[in-house]
């Protein structure tokens, strides 16, 4: 599944296609968008017609900053318009899915049906819901989709513009929470390579700047933490609706504290839905817990949603499940 083993297959796949459509996960972040734009640039240099498919109605601040800056430079389309841009011969069309491999998480699940040839470039674990009949390049030990795209650019031996290097570096900084999570020597090497190719750390900082009010709400959430053994559980304020990405970011933050190996964050995502986001440094198996709760994930991250349950009910349920799992492991 790795890039090295699939290098030739990947090249052949790309060589045989003419129109390439790039699609990230729902609620794009800078790793998904950065990797799409990075791949676009690689493919353009291979003389492919490229399209980035975005259906998100609302955009995270960093994503909308980038989309504004690149307006007119890339072909952005909605999935409903894919048929207009398809090549007459379907085998000349290729859909590349970046930063996810799950059917339900792509921008638009129905868009998958237009394509016989699909390629996945991702750094998340595969699962039951992984898109079928696709060439999969998946490395779960790599920091981000952006890091994978840099490796692909190196396979093609091509240069990326300083702006694209900046976007790719932003994706890495985002997914590693400033080089604290899932960071290896290769990640630092990639960051070095991008910086040496003209990426601007100052610009990365600008792109990733947050809204101050969101930050304040997140800090409030962090003041309500319970630590059980090596696990930290944080609960949101019941009257605040959090975005899924913000819960995830808070769960990332929990891992920054001494002695904490796994973090869970519970918060309301809408009037009737409570979300649970989980992160682990890899030692503590959060995926079993999430599966028991009806969600999913891998060794490092995962999530789950609950209908018609309040925050305290989810909190109790989570604690029971953690206790039960600890009992099973002993
Ligand atoms: Mn990612």
Could you explain how this protein is built, in words?
By secondary structure, the chain is α/β, with parallel strands linked by helices. It has two domains: 3-161, Alpha-Beta Complex (inorganic pyrophosphatase (n-terminal core)), CATH 3.90.1640; 217-329, Diaminopimelate Epimerase, Chain A, domain 1 (Roll). Helices cover 41% and strands 18% of the residues. The protein has helices at 3-16, 30-44, 61-69, 82-85, 145-155, 162-175, 185-196, 201-208, 212-222, 244-254, 286-292, 311-329; strands at residues 19-23, 49-53, 76-77, 93-98, 118-122, 135-138, 225-228, 231-235, 262-268, 273-280, 296-297, 301-307. α2 (30-44) packs antiparallel against α6 and α9 packs across α10. The protein is globular. The mean pLDDT is 94.
Could you list some keywords that capture this structure?
binds manganese (II) ion; inorganic pyrophosphatase (n-terminal core); 330 residues; single chain; alpha/beta; 6-stranded parallel β-sheet; 6-stranded mixed β-sheet; 12 helices; Diaminopimelate Epimerase, Chain A, domain 1; 41% helix; 2 domains
Question: Helices, strands, pairings?
Answer:
Layout: H1 3-16, E1 19-23, H2 30-44, E2 49-53, H3 61-69, E3 76-77, H4 82-85, E4 93-98, E5 118-122, E6 135-138, H5 145-155, H6 162-175, H7 185-196, H8 201-208, H9 212-222, E7 225-228, E8 231-235, H10 244-254, E9 262-268, E10 273-280, H11 286-292, E11 296-297, E12 301-307, H12 311-329
Parallel strand pairs: 1-2, 1-4, 2-3, 4-5, 5-6, 8-9
Antiparallel strand pairs: 7-8, 9-10, 10-12, 11-12
Helix pairs in contact: 2-5, 2-6, 5-6, 6-7, 6-8, 9-10
Manganese (II) ion (MN) binds next to loops.
């Amino acid at each position: 599944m790795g890039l090295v083993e699939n290098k030739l297959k990947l090249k052949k796949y790309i060589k045989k296609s003419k129109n390439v459509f790039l699609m990230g996960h729902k609620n794009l972040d800078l790793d998904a968008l950065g990797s799409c734009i990075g791949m676009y640039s690689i493919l353009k240099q291979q003389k492919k017609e490229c399209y980035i498919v975005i259906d998100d109605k609302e955009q995270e601040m960093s994503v909308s900053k980038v989309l504004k800056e690149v307006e007119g430079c890339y072909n952005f389309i909605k999935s409903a318009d894919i048929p207009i841009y398809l090549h007459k011969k379907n085998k000349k069309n290729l859909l590349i899915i970046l930063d996810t491999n799950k059917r339900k998480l792509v921008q638009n699940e129905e868009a998958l049906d237009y394509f016989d040839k699909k390629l996945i470039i991702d750094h998340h674990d595969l699962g039951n819901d992984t898109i079928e009949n696709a060439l999969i390049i998946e490395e779960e030990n790599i920091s981000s989709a952006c890091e994978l795209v840099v490796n692909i650019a190196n396979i093609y031996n091509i240069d990326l513009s300083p702006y694209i290097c900046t976007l790719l570096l932003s994706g890495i900084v985002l997914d590693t929470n400033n080089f604290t999570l899932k960071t290896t020597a290769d990640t630092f090497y990639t960051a070095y390579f991008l910086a040496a190719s003209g990426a601007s750390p100052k610009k990365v900082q600008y792109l990733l700047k947050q809204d101050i009010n969101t930050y304040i709400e997140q800090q409030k959430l962090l003041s309500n933490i319970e630590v059980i053994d090596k696990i930290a559980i944080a609960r949101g304020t019941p009257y605040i609706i959090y975005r899924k990405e913000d819960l995830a970011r808070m769960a990332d933050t929990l891992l920054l504290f001494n002695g904490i190996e796994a973090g869970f964050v519970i918060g309301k995502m809408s009037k009737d839905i409570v979300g649970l986001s989980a992160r682990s440094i890899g030692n503590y198996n959060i995926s079993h817990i999430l599966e028991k709760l009806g969600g999913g994930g891998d060794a490092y991250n995962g999530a789950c949603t609950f209908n018609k349950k309040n925050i305290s009910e989810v909190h109790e349920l989570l604690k029971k499940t953690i206790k039960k799992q600890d009992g099973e492991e002993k």
